[in-house]
Amino acid sequence: MAEVAPATKKPAQVDDKIHTWPHLVRGEFLVTIFVLVVLTLWAMLLDAPLEEPANPTRTPNPSKAPWYFLGLQEMLVYYDPWHAGVVLPTLIIIGLMVIPFIDINPAGNGYYCFKDRKYEILTFFFGFHILWVSMIIIGTFFRGPGWNLFWPWEHWDPHKVAALTNVDLPYLVGFRNQTLSVLFGLFCVVAYFVVGMALFYYWVVRIKGKEFMERWGPVRFGITAFLIVTMLALPVKMFLRLAFNVKYIVATKYINI
Amino acid sequence: MALKDKIEEIKKDIVESHVWKAIFRHGYEDTPRNRVLMVTANVWLHLHPAKVRRHGVRMRFTWCMGGLTFLMFLMTVITGIYLMFYYRPVGEYAFADMQYLEQDMPFGMLMRNMPRWAAHAMVVFVWLHMFRVFLTGSYKPPREFNWIVGVLLLVLTLLLSFTGYLLPWDQLSIWAVPVGSNMARASPLLGHEGPFHEFVGANPIYDARAFLFGGGEIGPHTLLRFYILHCIFIPLVASLLMAVHFWRIRRDGFSGPSL
Ligand code: HEM
């Protein structure tokens, strides 16, 4: 990334340094002891679960992943497994890794500051706290047998009937021909991305100005826009599913989106 | 008076004895030079710089989260090794060993709980650590690379927890794994239910899931595979990356407002 401004500042004369020993080491030592005491107490009071021996022939209902993966399991509801299980996690990891390269705002390096980095912080907040954490909460407390939605206080009725009326979007709007359905579905997906990225472009230009967009460059813009539009596709898809029972937008033999 | 002198004398005798000097080499005087030496001459402490900027020591800057993630990692290593003495990663024994540990071993339950909860805490801490690094913008130049190393560590942390989840070999653990197996099975090209698998020739006993599970279905072979991943392979890779992570923190300098 050639344009990244080198952050090296001329070392100022002020010296605000203090000795690691004792100042930092003392703090680390005390915090370590405190946390270890808490951990030990916790381990004495709360036992790790151990259920019946493993039995591959008896599937518990529901079978839940460990809580930190419930976001993934929850995404499986809305997307095909290859999409929720492989493509999206890969995009999340890559998306996290590219953050330092797409964020060219030099402000807020090394200190807490909301004002100068509103949009960056809000985006992170949305992706991490709203999407990821809330899906974990839904998966932990609101999913019961058959991966149906239950209130936490509701009885887990394994025979709860959830109408399987989900249909693909092309079918919903009246397409019955397979080829036309696929074409229409593909059109919707492409249109979603084109419109989404275009809107994002105009929004950035309006908020930050043309000059910023030039400095940002097409590659960085493209990657950011793609990731953000993909991220927003999750709530969009959740909405379509919950409100209109839409299953997939494109359904083919190979790939469903 | 006399008593105090006496104590001083005894103290002096002890401190100057051959044995004491063999162990401690010299006394400690609180001079700036010694403060620096305490850090640079100590194999553990010299991970730190000799001096740090004032803001970096404050808890409200780092929330201690990076360090505590590391502490949790160390805890799981130590208590985990203890468990390895009592646990056999074999289909017939694994569950029985857990029961034996819980019911017949003195402090066995405690020793089982420790790595368990430490691992959960590690996941939470690593997320919070990432959040604080984001909030302080500490991934900005020159620390981009360390952020990438961090993301890899995050993935490894999750994988460590995930592989460990299978080891008790009870209903909870083997039925948590299918989520991962669904993912592997559905990977494009490489999974036998993924898109385009025909072109690669992936089938249920020869695909990404079989590679991960050591066979077409989850079974004792999976247990051994996860055990080795959990106890040897991933911790090794994670330790290497942590070494890089810590080294880069020193090289890049700890972030902070410019002076
Ligand atoms: C096993 C996981 C990890 C361990 C043990 C670890 C440990 C540490 C420690 C001890 C520090 C020193 C400062 C502090 O405590 O905040 C640090 C700093 C840092 N970590 Fe991590 N970390 C881990 C994961 C991550 C992750 C997931 C990220 C980001 C995605 C990350 C990015 C960074 C960066 C950029 C710094 C430099 C911060 C600065 O200069 O202010 N680390 N890490």
Give the helix/strand layout.
The complex is a heterodimer of chains A (257) and B (259).
Chain A (H helix, E strand, L loop, with lengths): L16 E3 H26 L24 H9 L2 H22 L15 H24 L27 H4 L5 H31 L1 H35 L13
Helix pairs in contact in A: 2-3, 2-4, 3-7, 6-7
Chain B lengths: L1 H14 L2 H7 L7 H9 L10 E3 H4 L1 H4 L2 H20 L9 H10 L4 H28 L8 H23 L4 H4 L3 H8 L11 H4 L7 H6 L6 H33 L7
Order of helices and strands of chain A: EHHHHHHH
Please name the fourth-level CATH homologous superfamily of the largest domain in chain B. Answer: Cytochrome Bc1 Complex, Chain C
Radius of gyration of chain B: 25 Å
Give the CATH architecture of the largest domain in chain B. Answer: Up-down Bundle
Provide the structure class of chain A: mainly alpha
The total of helices of chain A stands at 7
Largest sheet of chain A: none
Outline the low-pLDDT stretches of chain A. 1-7
Write down the overall geometry of chain A. flat
SSE series of chain B:
HHHEHHHHHHHHHHH
The count of β-strands of chain A is 1
Give me some keywords for this one.
heterodimer; A: 257 residues; mainly alpha; 3 domains; 7 helices; disordered N terminus; B: 259 residues; Cytochrome Bc1 Complex, Chain C; 14 helices; flat; binds protoporphyrin IX containing FE
Tell me about this structure.
Chain A has 257 residues and is mainly α. Chain A has three domains: 20-47; 63-147, no CATH class; 163-257, no CATH class. Chain A has helices at residues 20-45, 70-78, 81-102, 118-141, 169-172, 178-208, 210-244; one strand spanning 17-19. In chain A, helix 3 packs antiparallel against helix 7 and helix 6 packs across helix 7 (210-244). The longest helix of chain A is centred in the C-terminal third of the chain and has 35 residues, at 210-244. The model of chain A is unreliable at 1-7 (pLDDT under 50). In chain B, helix 6 runs antiparallel to helix 8 and helix 7 (94-103) crosses helix 8. Chain B folds into two domains: 1-57, no CATH class; 63-252, Up-down Bundle (Cytochrome Bc1 Complex, Chain C), CATH 1.20.810. By secondary structure, chain B is mainly alpha-helical. Chain B contains 14 helices and one strand. Chain B has helices at residues 2-15, 18-24, 32-40, 54-57, 59-62, 65-84, 94-103, 108-135, 144-166, 171-174, 178-185, 197-200, 208-213, 220-252; one strand at residues 51-53. Chains A and B meet through strand 1, helix 1, helix 2, helix 3 and helix 4 of A and helix 3, strand 1, helix 4, helix 6 and helix 7 of B. The structure holds protoporphyrin IX containing FE.
